[in-house]
Amino acid sequence: MPAPPSAPLSDTRIGLLGAGQMARALAAGWVRTGLAKPGDLIAYDPSDAAFEAFTASVGAGVVRAASAAEAAGADALLLAIKPQYAAEALPAAIEGLRPETLVVSILAGTTLSTLAGMLPAGQPLVRVMPNTPCLVGRGASAYALGPGVADAQGAWVEALLSAVGFAAQVPEPLLDAVTGLSGSGPAYIYTIIEALADGGVRAGLPRKLAAELALHTVAGAAEMVAQTGEHPAVLREAVSSPAGTTIAGLGELERRGLRAALVEAVVTAAERARELGRG
Ligand SMILES: NC(=O)C1=CN([C@@H]2O[C@H](COP(=O)(O)OP(=O)(O)OC[C@H]3O[C@@H](n4cnc5c(N)ncnc54)[C@H](OP(=O)(O)O)[C@@H]3O)[C@@H](O)[C@H]2O)C=CC1
Ligand SMILES: O=C(O)[C@@H]1CCC=N1
Q1: What is the ipTM of this complex?
Q2: Where is the Pyrroline-5-carboxylate reductase catalytic N-terminal domain (predicted)?
């Protein structure tokens, strides 16, 4: 099997080191969009439960590697373990790596330079920060190319990420901020959806209806920003009648600091990514 990117995406075998939440979201997204077949994916994860969940999401036919080295023998290797385990897990994978194998890391905080120090000299390496909505084709990912990566390999990564959502190439120092915003961001939005639904219930709505209205309100508002191209403030003003309900609700959000809380959440998560990178 030729190494990426000379092979068509669909003919490239992708090894995965770690088959947990994020590996599952990416792999299932690739299969869902027809970019990969389950049999193209060879995953190593010591956890039976994680591998079973991986197979259930991605599809029958995914290959369970018996060792990290076996997964690393694919055409590209996705590093999808926790950053804290990298130093311990990578030596076993390196035994199976070929010099041309493209290593794609999604480890929060772990820099290209740290990873390169753990891999054979000259190993092509890309650092990516995806997010779990890749599972449904609505991911938001950013990536930075390592020094030895050919343009065509960068294009391969861009295609891999674009298949499951938005993707942007960035200078590596921005990736910790990306982690704080879009990597962790789905969790902030799930919290907002949950809280809106709770508010609906407090205001008297049945729980199921409140949950549906909260979900569709968030999805619809995001789609309005995407489709109209308007600044969110313009769209917010269009909802806010003078002396109306919305301005009363917004006042409460300002008093209770929602805006500042979200800003600080992103900044604090980005700082945590930097801390993880320092080991
Ligand atoms: N979850 C997210 O939203 C995002 C996560 N990331 C990054 O993705 C990476 C994975 O995160 P996530 O998927 O959430 O984590 P998970 O814990 O869900 O997945 C990691 C998996 O790796 C397994 N594992 C542990 N040791 C090894 C090993 N030596 N070899 C192979 N597999 C091993 C774990 O098993 P066990 O549980 O038994 O230890 C677990 O099943 C992290 O580096 C994270 O920073 C990036 C973007 C978003
Ligand atoms: O919480 C974490 O560390 C990972 C990285 C980005 C999202 N989840």
Answers
A1: 0.99
A2: 13-109
Helix, strand or coil, per DSSP, at residue 139: strand
22 and 106 assigned to the same domain: yes
C-alpha 27 – ligand 2 centre gap (Å): 17
Q: Is the CB of 179 under 6 A from ligand 2?
A: yes
The residue among 172, 202, 226 that closes a domain is 172
Residue 252 lies in a domain: yes
Instruction: For residues 276 and 56, give the distance between their C-alpha atoms in angstroms, rounded to a whole number.
Output: 30
pLDDT in tens, 55-86: 999 999 999 999 999 999 999 999 999 999 99
For residue 9, is it within any domain? no
Check whether 137 is labelled as a binding-site residue.
no
Contact 12, 160 (CB under 8 A): no
User: What is the rounded CA–CA span in Å between residue 88 and residue 98?
Assistant: 20
Q: Which amino acid is at 74?
A: A
Residue count of the chain, please give it. 279
**What is the pTM (predicted TM-score) of this model?**
0.96
Is 82 annotated in a binding site? The answer is yes
